[in-house]
Amino acid sequence: MSLNYLVKRLAWSAAVLVGVTVFSYVVIVLSPGDPAVKWAGNPRGPGAAKAIEEARKELGLDLPLHLQVLNFLKMVFTGNLGYSIAYRQPVFAVLVRNLTATLELLFAAYLIGVPLGSLLGVAASLQRGRSVDGFLQTLGLALASAPSFWLGMAIFGALFSAGFPAYGRVSTGLALMTGFQAITGFYLLDSLLQLNIPLFIDALARLLPPALAVAAYPTGLCLRLSRALVADALLEEYVRAAVAWGVKRRIVVWKYAFRAALPGLVQVAGTAFAYSLIDAMVVEYVFGREGLGRLLFDAIAFSDFKLATGLLVLVAAFYLVVNTLADIAQAVIDPRVKL
Amino acid sequence: MNASRARFNSAVGFLDLARRAWKRSARLRVGAFLVGVVVFMAVLGPHVAPHPSDGWGVVPRNAAERAGKPPCPEFPFGTDNLGRDVLSRVLVGARLALVQITLVVSVSLALGLLVGVCAAYYKGPVEALLNYVAEVFLALPALVVALALRLALGQGLHIVVASLILSWWPWYARSSYIYARAVVEMEYVLLARLAGVPARTVLFRHVLANVAPPVLVQAITDLGSVLLEASAINFLGIGLPPDAPDWGVIVQNGFRYIVSMPWVSMFPGAFILITALGFSLVGDSLREELDPKMRRRWKLWF
Amino acid sequence: MVLAVEAKRLSVGYEELEELLWAVRGVSFEVREGEAFCIVGESGSGKSTVASAIAGILPPHAVTEGELRVGGRLVVKGNERDYEGVRGHLVTYVPQSPGASLNPYLEIGDQFYYVLNNLYGLSRKEAREKARTYLEMAGLDPGAVLDRYPHELSGGMLQRAAIALALSTGAKILVADEPTSSLDAHLRLQIVQLLKRLRSEVGLTLIFITHDMLLAGVLSERIAVMYAGHLVEVGPTKEVLRKPLHPYTSMLIECVPVLGVKRPLKAYAGEPPNLSEAGRGCPFYDRCPFRLEACASEIPPVKEVGESYYVACWLY
Predict the structure, then answer these.
(1) Contact B273, A146 (CB under 8 A)
(2) Is A241 in Cβ contact with C104 (below 8 Å)?
């Protein structure tokens, strides 16, 4: 993969992020009402006027139009969106802290869903058109059509009535007792690093149920995709040739057919990973976990426009980065593609 | 020339496609049935519902004694914490569900087709600009856009619909751009231009007609996906207000009572699943029909 | 006399959606061990399907009738097919399009490994050594090929690599589907010489499919002519080419330009019938210059007209 490609990709992504930022600026400024009031979070009471004045300065509303936009762009790209109204902390600090929580959930979900779905898809493609295949196909569609928040609620409710409240990321009592410290923000990793096994188990037990809810979509997606790709690959000339030369079935299915499906699977799974961030956020809300999902809620409660803008840019950046990584991964796996 | 025209189905060909698929695929029939049920609910729901006012969100007068009943003959889906009949709420909710998704998909489709086809046809700087704009909107997550719009404009149906349209149209723009690029190069389009047929006519008649079918099939599947996203937005309370007759909102209402009154959330959620599944089944089998190779059946022969 | 391949009224059809299309109709022939046997015909004659049937790679939606024996083993009986222990062990296959028959995701060396390991349990090192031998036999430099991916090699190199892979199975029956059609002239000669050498050195039974009559003449001892799924003439190559009995065979020969021979080229009108059109008489009826009354209503039976020489035509 050439440096040229990487540079072009990054430049393009930056340009798109600029567009996203401009969009959010447009929303603030063009919607009915005073942008400064909105930016200040609809303050009331004694400090209101001052807050609004500060907001006016931050947004640069007294500047000519093009400078306003540039000013806003500078704010976003230097990570200086000001203090979140909901948390009274720098917006980007809040975002980053919660991003790791959501990422942990997302990784867990995809680590479960992608292999599971892919394997089921291979099984379906080997018996194409038979009842097993029809069942698996419909299962795949059903999994991909299930609302993740509903699945999450079902799982949460079931576990709760069975006596296990799968709430939050860790039991706060246990965390205090064992002196748990967050280092990377990935609690599974952190607890292992501190050799804190009870907390690891606790965090894992609270991670799996929401992960299952989020994993439904990638499972269904990969099931259908791998079924289609592997079935196509099985009809290819090189598979016929390998069969003719006496290569064993297991090798033909995995090293010839499935191997052909891998680049497509990786690319699609990678892209889906980006879009599943939203799913993870909603499921977090259901399970009361800290993470970007909670930010959504608090942003509304506090009319926190800064947080909303930060979220918008962050998620967009996440999409762009993950899509780029997925394309790169696909190129690495497929020796024919040269970037 | 006729061969190339035959390869792409026209609008009439699309109906042929649907007819063939109906005969061949059980999944299409099941999907169509599910969609049919939901459409029926949407059209007749409010009239068929046993307690229509409950359905629209009004709290009944004898709420206290009705609240929180599990499913029983009088209330087949049970009642929620405010005593409203869940079956009626689900029936009425179908209408709003279909309204939201049809609005979103039709506007996004129209906008996306227009932009994609224009980008392919006019080429040059127009193409680059349109592609850039599409990419920017592609990167926008509907849920967060909904959040921003909510803060700017307040609650309501327009939040859900607008945020979804803004994030969905670029998908159609991109696929129609790809298809249109291939079509634009074809002989009969070039000949039409040379013959002096005005750009607009060439654009609409030839290019759009040929690009539409595969994109239309995608749109059918998207009806289901849009419902999932819209429900999520309403579930979080970003879109519609808490008493709105919307499935996502009803699930939200039942959230706090998931252990004591699970039926409040489970039934509307199940209907979201059924609707999305129905559209996916239809879209999936139509897409399979477009690609003949996919229809073989076998057991591994080696 | 041991038969390498024996077909008895073999028919092969393909299930396409609602229809069943027969590509091969009631074909019977024998190939002796160590013989060079060639099947010729136009596209759609069913020759590739026969090759696939012998090599054991009929697609899953294929339907069969009749019997087929390969290396003495019954592989096709009615609609039952069993190639267990036959593929790679008794029969090997050289595919038509070299570019498409090698796994694009594996290096050539790895592909040799999977074949040799599956057949003989060789380790990676042993497989690599064996691969060298075969690549050199096919006229390739192993160092330039073993660690490469297929898309990095030229068409000619790919075809030779595919041949090397096919040979490395050590099977005694080689089925080659249009082995030279995708090659340049000088490569074509090389491959022909290679195949000839292998036959004399190793005692390979060579069955190859082609539409190139010249190649058939040079390389084969017996030739079978197929038209629209039927076997119309099969016999010793020299005799068939010198004095073809079936009108279709004459037509094929007359269409071939031969260097150094001044002869007006005849172009024959018409095309072979569609797979789905199963007429009642001889399939060649529409294009045949010697039509008899019987030809329109009944398929001519196969008659023996000489030493292992058969024709299916009402003329005889």
Answers:
(1) yes
(2) no
pLDDT digits (tens, 9 = 90+) for B186-245: 766 677 777 777 766 776 677 677 767 778 888 999 999 999 999 999 999 998 998 889
State yes or no: ipTM above 0.85: yes
- Spell out the domain ranges in chain C: 3-34+56-83+211-311
Q: What is the 3-state secondary structure (H, E, C) of chain C?
A: CCEEEEEEEEEEEEEECCEEEEEEEEEEEEEECCCEEEEECCCCCCHHHHHHHHHCCCCCCEEEEEEEEECCEEEEECCEECCCCCECCCEEEECCCHHHCCCCCCCHHHHHHHHHHHHHCCCHHHHHHHHHHHHHHCCCCHHHHCCCCHHHCCHHHHHHHHHHHHHHCCCCEEEEECCCCCCCHHHHHHHHHHHHHHHHHHCCEEEEEECCHHHHHHHCCEEEEEECCEEEEEEEHHHHHHCCCCHHHHHHHHCCCCCCCCCCCCCCCCCCCCCCCCCCCCCCHHHCCCCCHHHHHCCCCCEEEECCEEECCCCC
Contact residues on chain B for A126, CB-CB shorter than 8 A: 299-300
Within 8 A by CB and 6+ apart from C279, the residues are: C273, C285
Nearest CA in chain C to A338: C151
Check residue B74 and report its DSSP letter. Answer: S
Q: Rounded to whole angstroms, how far apart are CA atoms A112 and A104?
A: 13
Which residue has 């042929």 as its token pair? B16
> Are the C-beta atoms of residues C295 and C282 closer than 8 Å to each other?
yes
**Cα gap C313→C292, rounded to integer Å:** 10
**Angstroms from B197 CA to nearest CA on chain A:** 37
Nearest chain C residue to B292 by CA distance is C17
Q: How far is CA A65 from CA A29, A70, B71, in A?
A: 11, 9, 59
Q: How far apart are CA C8 and CA C31, in angstroms?
A: 12
Torsion of Cα atoms, A31 then B157 then A102 then A213, to 10°: -170
Q: Specify the range with the lowest mean pLDDT, choosing from A143-147, B139-143, C139-143.
A: C139-143
Q: Helix A259-287 crosses helix A292-301 at what angle (to 10 degrees)? A: 40
Pick the CATH number of C3-34+56-83+211-311 from 3.40.50.880, 3.40.50.300, 3.30.470.20, 3.50.50.60: 3.40.50.300
Contacts of B20 in chain C (CB under 8 A): none
User: Whole-angstrom Cα distance, residue A263 to residue A229?
Assistant: 10
Instruction: Name the residue ranges covered by the structural domains of chain B.
Output: 19-55+72-294
| Chain B residues 113-172 with a CB less than 8 Å from chain C | none
Look up the CATH architecture of domain B19-55+72-294: Orthogonal Bundle (1.10)
Q: Does C167 reach chain B within 8 Å, measured CB to CB?
A: no
Cα separation, B19 vs B23, in Å, equals 7
Q: Distance between alpha carbon A179 and the CA centroid of its chain, in Å?
A: 29
Q: Cα–Cα distance between A288 and B233 in angstroms, integer?
A: 17
Cβ–Cβ contact B294 with C under 8 A: no
Summarised one tens digit per residue, pLDDT across range C169-217 is 988 899 998 877 777 777 788 888 888 888 888 788 999 898 888 888 8
The distance of Cα C158 from the centroid of its chain, to the nearest Å, equals: 19
Question: What's the pTM value of the predicted model, to 2 decimals?
Answer: 0.87
Report the distance separating Cα A132 and Cα A144, nearest Å.
18
- The residue type of A289 is R
Identity of the residue numbered A317: A
**B17-60: pLDDT as tens digits:** 777 778 777 888 999 999 999 999 999 988 888 888 888 878 88
What B182-191 contacts at long range (C-beta under 8 Å, 24+ apart), as own/partner pairs, is B183/B8, B183/B120, B183/B207, B183/B210, B183/B211, B184/B120, B184/B121, B186/B4, B187/B1, B187/B4, B188/B1, B188/B4, B188/B5
